[in-house]
Design brief:
- The complex is a heterodimer.
- In chain A, 49% of the residues lie in helices and 14% in strands.
- In chain A, the strands form 2 sheets. In chain A, strands 2-1-3-4 form a 4-stranded parallel beta sheet, with helices on both faces. In chain A, strands 6-5-7-8 form a 4-stranded parallel beta sheet, sandwiched between helices.
- Chain A folds into 2 domains: 128 residues, Rossmann fold (3-Layer(aba) Sandwich), CATH 3.40.50.11890; 186 residues, Rossmann fold.
- By secondary structure, chain B is an alpha/beta fold.
- Chain B has a domain of 196 residues: 3-Layer(aba) Sandwich (Rossmann fold), CATH 3.40.50.
- Chain B is built from 20 helices and 8 strands.
- In chain B, the strands form 2 sheets. Chain B has a 4-stranded parallel beta sheet with strand order 2-1-3-4, with helices on both faces.
- In chain B, strand 3, helix 9 and strand 4 form a beta-alpha-beta unit.
- The two termini of chain B are 39 Å apart.
- The chains are: A alpha/beta, B alpha/beta.
- Chains A and B meet through helix 3, helix 4 and helix 11 of A and helix 9, helix 10, helix 18 and helix 19 of B.
- Chain B: Its EC number is 4.2.1.-.
Chain lengths: 346, 423
């Protein structure tokens, strides 16, 4: 069994980690407050980042050979500075991710990916052949393609899947500590897919959006009478990227295009038109009746992305609800009142 | 009467928005300032004010294509293209003085720009939506150091239906990063020229880079003079010149103001005119200061004789620009910022300032919502503790005076001053 490499942001190329014989392990934080992380990072910083640091300080993580931190936002930048000193085990590798999608950015990102591969190869004391990387790219694409197919079938009404199940499976898939476990998780979800699921048909079909969604949110919304049919989040649909034409040649260029060209995160500020087009596609394809936007506290990208979502919903005549959260799982009461009032609109 | 009281007195109430667009208002304002010339303790500050009024007038009267920028974007490009730069973050600080902040905050919060975000951007957002800012012809923004700026400025570009150009700045400083930034700068420059119908003038562009270099040289001279004991300028006074670091490089005016300031400092040093009667401690100030009246500097400098001898914002972190390779050298400047990348870089720069300016203590003003400056403070605190340098993290807000707690601030400052005396 290979050693685990932790990662955070969905722009992290897990293919490189896999190709080098490591197992990518997504760090999703923990439920509850973050008193120990609060002593190292200020109060008004991303609660997800602090939650991840808290798990590391409390030694709640499996043994990690290293961690890849994509410096995708200010909170991640500070985590990259803090992690090696106060939290993380093993090596800390940082990755710069462009905030735009054009050929210059793709080229630059591909150079960064090649550098990351070199650093990880050094850590694993082995060389990374392009052929191995292509194999990993194909293997990951196969799995992502499966998930995308599953979600598309849900959109077409061919299968009835709750958002809470989808999020739970995705979380499990990203944090499987072994490759075999990940395959098993996928197989398990396929089996669950065949089982009789609660029939949510007739309920308002909702898109959940945000930077990263608390795991419990889709389940709660479904408990209160909604149906989460699309999760636009770093730990939701965005992680599944989008299909791109298989290139031959430089695998790093392919990966750069794959990741930067995927569903855009709110941080991709130069790419806002594409983000709006992405929402429009989701609303049409998934027959969305309304949107619930989870604004992670102190996430600058989410604060302004919500504004853009509001304009989008106003134009489309879609009801929109804003929920604020701090990733601790402690806002249930407040959310319930607001979600129930929102669902009464339908 | 300070300049803001003066403006509020003459441009009060509903006339305010209209006054911004009236050439008469600026003429009147300049005359009022000129009439008080002798009351300015620094002629450089007087010149800076007149130049700033001219720049603001150029933006409001649309004397050229107005381009909004964030305070970390290399303004040499905008001056080099003959555009009128306008920094909404700097305008937010002015809005506090003009007494429109309360209204602007209300507008922003009513439009869902929540109180968790940086108040500079919230205030600028509110001022814009309330009609206080001059409409832009284009918006440019760099992505480094601040997550709120690109978001807020992209939203502004969308609101005004004008092009938005993002300068994506990585955190490494290697050749690949310099090339990546340089290519973007070149592309942004020519896209701006195209979009705004500005003819490309290589000579003018190079002049802007030369002006930037001249300003840099004079600022270095100012900084050298500020290293000497006793201090000849109070931090309270020196803070006023930070505006040039954020919006002035590339203009002749910035070079002139720094030249004047260096000359005045030199003269005061020769005459041994001290900043305070008895210099009891020397302080380094990190980040910005509140832009509304507080007793912070009065307490530190006038009452306790603890002079702020340097501000982090005045640190010259970049090498001279090469006019023959403008985009490459501007990329180098952008990537040289000590706040970019891992925290150890900023710590190293701050420790170098501690040594160079022989400071006895460090105060960081933790502006609410500024994750860049505040998030990694624990590492800085540890580094300063290792060197046994007293450190105070003073929490507050640069532009939202409702967050200012005078009693608590005084208590914390007095505690810090006691610690300084004990060292």
């Amino acid at each position: 069994m290979g050693a685990l490499i932790g990662w955070f942001c969905h722009y992290t190329p897990v293919e490189i980690i896999t190709a080098l014989g490591f197992i990518p392990y997504r760090l999703l934080g923990r439920e509850g407050n973050t008193p120990r992380a609060d002593t190292y990072l200020v109060g008004n910083l991303c609660p997800y980042v602090k939650s991840c640091l808290e798990t590391a300080i409390r030694q709640e993580l499996p043994p990690l050979a290293g961690t890849v931190i994509a410096r995708s936002c200010n909170a991640m930048i500070h985590l990259a500075s803090t992690w090696p000193r106060y939290g993380g085990q093993g090596a800390t590798l940082v990755l710069d991710v462009p905030r735009r999608l054009d050929e210059e950015a793709v080229l630059y990102y591909s150079q960064n990916l090649r550098r990351l591969a070199g650093e990880l190869a050094w850590l694993g004391e082995r060389q990374l052949e392009d052929s191995l990387l292509w194999q990993a790219i194909d293997a990951w694409e196969e799995q992502r393609s499966y998930w995308r197919g599953l979600l598309a079938a849900r959109a077409r009404g061919e299968i009835c899947l709750s958002g809470s199940d989808v999020m739970a499976w995705l979380d499990g898939w990203q944090t499987c500590a072994t490759a075999a476990g990940r395959d098993k998780g996928q197989a398990g979800s396929a089996a669950i897919e065949q089982q009789s699921r609660p029939d949510f048909r007739g309920r308002p079909r909702l898109m959940l959006a945000g930077s990263i969604l608390p795991a419990e949110l889709p389940a709660l919304i479904e408990e209160w009478g909604g149906w989460s049919v699309f999760e636009d989040a770093c730990n939701g649909r965005r992680f599944l990227l989008a299909e791109v034409a298989r290139e031959t040649g430089d695998p790093y260029l392919h990966l750069a295009r794959l990741y930067l060209g995927g569903p855009p995160c709110p941080r991709m500020v130069a790419d806002q038109t594409r983000r709006q087009q992405y929402w429009a596609g989701v609303v049409d394809d998934y027959q969305i009746d309304g949107v619930i936007y989870h604004v992670m506290k102190f996430c600058d990208a989410a604060i302004y992305d919500f504004r853009a979502m509001k304009d989008f919903c106003d134009r489309r005549g879609l009801p929109l609800l804003r929920l604020d959260g701090d990733y601790t799982g402690g806002a249930r009461g407040q959310w319930q009142t607001r979600v129930e009032a929102f669902l009464e609109m339908f | 009467m300070d300049i803001y009281q003066l403006i509020r007195f003459h441009l009060a109430g509903p006339l305010r928005r209209r006054a911004f667009k009236s050439p008469w208002a600026y003429r009147l304002l300049k005359q009022l300032v000129a009439a008080q010339k002798k009351r300015y303790s620094w002629q450089a500050a007087y010149e800076l004010l007149l130049n700033t009024i001219d720049q603001v007038a150029a933006a409001y009267l649309q004397q050229g294509p107005v381009v909004w920028h964030n305070v970390f974007f290399p303004t040499e490009i905008l001056y080099g293209l003959g555009l009128v730069p306008f920094a909404p973050e700097a305008a937010a600080a002015v809005a506090v003085g003009l007494g429109v902040a309360e209204e602007a905050f209300r507008v922003a919060e009513g439009d869902w720009v929540s109180g968790e975000s940086c108040s500079f951007h919230r205030l600028a957002y509110g001022c814009d939506r309330a009609g206080y800012l001059p409409p832009p012809g284009a918006v440019v923004c760099s992505s480094h150091l601040c997550d709120a700026a690109p978001q807020s400025l992209a939203a502004a570009a969308g609101y005004h239906h004008v092009p938005f150009y993002l300068l994506d700045v990585p955190h490494r400083q290697d050749a690949a990063a310099i090339n990546y930034v340089a290519r973007q700068l070149k592309s942004i420059t020519f896209s701006l020229a195209d979009a705004l119908g500005v003819p490309w003038d290589q000579e003018r562009f190079q002049e802007a880079l030369l002006a930037s270099n001249t300003a840099r040289e004079h600022l270095l001279a100012v900084n050298r003079l500020r290293r000497q004991r006793p201090a000849c300028i109070r931090g309270d006074e020196a803070h006023g010149f930070i505006y040039l670091m954020l919006a002035g490089f590339g203009s002749e005016a910035a070079a002139a103001v720094y030249r004047q300031l260096a000359a005045e400092l030199e003269q005061r040093w020769r005459e041994q005119r001290r900043a305070v009667p008895e210099e009891r401690a020397r302080l380094l100030w990190l980040h910005l200061r509140p832009y509304y009246p507080t007793e912070i500097f009065n307490l530190l400098e006038q009452e306790a004789g603890a002079v702020v001898v340097f501000e982090e914002m005045h640190h010259v972190y970049w090498e001279p620009l090469d006019p023959a390779r403008p985009f490459y050298s501007l990329a180098g400047k952008v990537l040289s910022h000590h706040g970019l990348g891992c925290m150890s870089r900023r710590i190293e720069a701050i420790l170098a300032m501690v040594d160079a300016y022989q400071v006895d203590g460090v105060i960081h003003f933790a502006h609410w919502g500024c994750r860049q400056s505040t998030a990694g403070l624990r590492l800085l605190q540890d580094a300063l503790r290792d060197r046994e340098i007293p450190f105070l993290n003073l929490e507050g807000d640069c532009v939202d005076k409702s967050k200012y707690a005078p009693g608590a601030t005084r208590t914390r400052l007095e505690g810090f001053l006691e610690m300084l005396r004990a060292v």
